[in-house]
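Case study 2.
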Amino acid sequence: MIDQAKVLANVLMEIEDYTFTKDLLVKPLDPVMVTKTFTRPIPVLNEDGTQVIEGDVAKYDTEEVTEEVESPFAKGIVLALPSTMDTGIKVGDTIIYPSKFAIPFDHYRDSVFVKPYDVVARIPQI
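Prediction:
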C-alpha cells in the first residue's frame, strides 16, 4: 500500500505554483478490483466439430464465468482544491469518484481533475 502522507508531501511541494479554480486535483491510487460473473455463449458442436444449425440459426449454450475486473469507480488522494469550493473535502482526504469522468492533468504526472459533484464518497485524512 502507498504511504499517503509521503505522496501528499512530495506532490504538494511540486504544485505550489498552481491555484485551481474549478476542479479537484487528485492523485489516483491503485485500481480497485471487483469480482463479477458474466454469462458467455458457447457454440454447440456436432460430433465432427461443426456448429449445430437449427433452421437458419446457430445453436449456442451458455456458461457463467467469474472474473476480477477493474471497478468503474476509482480512489484517489486530493492534492489541491479549487479556490471556490466550500465542502467538507480537504487536501489529503481520500475520495471515490467515477473514473470515466476524471480528466488527466498533463502538467503533473499521474494526476487527474475530478469535478466536485462527481465525488461519491470521502475518507477523511487521519
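Strands lie at 24-28, 33-43, 53-54, 57-58, 60-70, 73-80, 94-98, 103-104, 112-114, 121-123.
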